[in-house]
Design brief:
Layout: H1 33-53, H2 63-70, H3 82-92, E1 105-106, H4 115-127, H5 134-137, H6 139-155, E2 162-166, H7 169-189, H8 193-196, E3 205-210, H9 216-223, E4 231-234, H10 244-256, E5 260-267, H11 279-288, E6 292-297, E7 321-325, H12 326-329, E8 337-341, H13 384-393, H14 395-419, E9 423-427, E10 433-438, H15 448-462, E11 466-472, E12 475-481, H16 489-509
Keywords: Decarboxylase, Lyase, Pyridoxal phosphate
Modified residues (N6-(pyridoxal phosphate)lysine): 328
Cofactor: pyridoxal 5'-phosphate
């Protein structure tokens, strides 16, 4: 008779406790291959359940309801077997995990992932290489470096480019501003910030960003000791892109005030609108005023894969540094990101030698060490292997086709929303973000912000559709973020109809 552990999962060897025979079977080694195989098979079944049982992107469970179950967890009392463990994790996590792969998930910058990258995750976790030095990773180091070189060529950088995989876009943006700060201090003030801290002039350093740029710019400026006051926000045009004329005016104004412009951060794909700043125009201004030019392409990096829309990144090759998030636009599992510089010697500004890890006398052409390029991670997992699996099996063209289909679907969706009298579209998108709100053209006795807040909350509580939201000039709007090539116009129309239903419900109650 078979004992059911999980749906479709037969009795496991875990039900027989053999720890007395092999007290180290829990440790991954040559004596635990059977236990490892059984654990992976059980995990695979949970993933199958997740794919087969999720018909909506979220269960709708409240934090209070879920939290009450967590209150029963006692870490001082281990579970008896894997059956109990997987049942617990399904209850606490899997059954309520957000299903990013479903077409009705259309909220944040979470892409569905490709299967080759998931296969790579198995190797990454089991072999557990650390990417800081060659003697801890060997081929992993060379794979990462080759992928950085490939990405640099796709950006348009020359053979002197370099970079490193990072934990995410915010970390990469921090590296861009750190190099901008240290480069200016070293070149123009002859001051080594790494050794001596910020110079007195640092209080006058100024960094220019779009008013729609990522919030990490303010956080990173604070971390760098420059304060949020160092960030000058530039107003945007009608499509919410940085206005290059206003940028130049702001640079001149800060110079006249006695402040010190050091960098411009351009956004290649804003979180709220999916539009790209005029990269080529900004590049000319950074050259004119001798400023560090960082491009935050965490979202828009997917355009590197395309033929049809690659022109939107014109000007990115002139950047001094670039942020890339493969886990936003290359269909990679979290985390998979990178920071690249056009000239590799700039990374020397952050290099620090430790005798036990990367001694100064070591020949780094002979024994490369990626830790010399990282600012916040010593031990660092081999995330690059996921991208390697993806490119080697699927290729750039396939990924590019996915990206182009997403952009095309977003453009068609914008037309549908714009033509519908029950919706107000704020802007179209270069990529796949559409900001809009539900309205009732025949009624004026309602607050549109309260109406759309009600819709957003109702959708989340039911879990049937997940959309995002934002505020523009103080007004509340709904937001679609299209990152799934499977999502089609029928899905979009169904989502819009559900939004209308909740909007109608609100108006009938008020």
């Amino acid at each position: 008779m078979k004992t059911e552990i999980l749906p479709d999962l037969q009795e496991s060897a875990f039900l027989t406790d053999t720890r007395e025979e092999n007290p180290y079977q829990d440790i991954f080694h040559e004596g635990s291959t059977e236990e490892y195989s059984e654990a992976i098979e059980s995990a695979k079944q949970v993933v199958r359940n997740f794919l087969e049982n999720n018909k909506k992107p979220f269960s709708g469970i409240s934090p209070a309801a879920l939290g009450s179950i967590f209150a029963e967890v006692d870490f001082d009392t281990p579970l008896p077997d894997y059956k109990s463990l997987f049942e617990e994790v399904e209850t606490l996590y899997v059954k309520h995990a957000t299903a990013f792969h479903l077409p009705r998930y259309i909220a944040h910058l979470n892409c569905p992932v490709v299967i080759p990258a998931l296969a790579a995750e198995v190797l990454i976790s089991a072999i557990n290489s650390s990417q800081d030095t060659y003697d801890q990773s060997a081929g992993g180091t060379l794979m990462e470096r080759k992928l950085i070189d490939w990405t640099g060529r796709e950006i348009g950088f020359g053979p002197d480019c370099d970079g490193v995989f990072t934990g995410g876009g915010s970390q990469s943006n921090l590296m861009g501003l750190l190099l901008a700060r240290d480069y200016y201090a070293m070149k123009y003030l002859k001051h080594n910030i790494k050794l001596n801290g910020n110079p007195p002039e640092a209080s006058r350093f100024r960094i220019f960003v779009s008013e729609k740029a990522h919030f990490s710019n303010q956080k990173n400026s604070s971390l760098l000791g420059l304060g949020e006051q160092s960030v000058i926000k530039i107003k945007t045009d009608s499509r919410f892109r940085m206005d290059s004329e206003l940028l130049e005016q702001a640079i001149i104004r800060e110079l006249e005030l006695g402040n010190i412009p050091i960098a411009v951060v351009a956004t290649a794909g804003t979180t709220d609108f999916g539009n790209l700043d005029p990269l080529a125009e900004i590049a000319l201004l950074t050259k004119k005023y001798q400023l560090w030019y960082h491009v935050d392409a965490a979202y828009g990096c997917g355009l590197l894969l395309t033929t049809k829309y690659r022109y939107l990144l014109d000007g990115i090759a002139d950047a001094d540094s670039v942020t890339i998030d493969y886990h936003k636009s290359f269909f990679q599992p979290i985390s998979s990101s990178a920071f690249l510089v056009r000239e590799k010697h700039q990374l020397g500004l952050i290099k620090h030698h430790a005798d036990y890890l990367n001694p100064k006398e070591q020949d780094y052409d002979e024994l490369p060490a990626q830790i010399n390029k990282s600012i916040t991670q010593s031990t660092r997992r081999f995330d690059a292997l996921k991208l390697w699996f993806t490119l080697r099996l699927l290729g750039k063209q396939k990924l590019g086709e996915y990206t182009e289909s997403i952009i095309d679907t977003a453009a068609d969706t914008a037309k549908i929303i714009d033509k519908d009298p029950h919706f107000e579209l704020l802007s179209d998108s270069d990529l796949g973000v559409l900001v809009f709100r539900y309205i009732n053209p025949g009624q004026t006795s309602y607050d549109p912000c309260e109406l759309n807040q009600y819709i957003k909350k109702s959708l989340f509580n039911s879990g049937e559709v997940l959309v995002a939201s934002t505020k523009v000039n103080g007004a509340f709007y709904l937001k679609f973020t299209l990152l799934n090539p499977i999502t089609n116009l029928n899905d979009i129309q169904n989502i819009l109809n559900i939004i209308k239903k909740h909007g109608t419900d609100y108006l009938s109650l008020n």
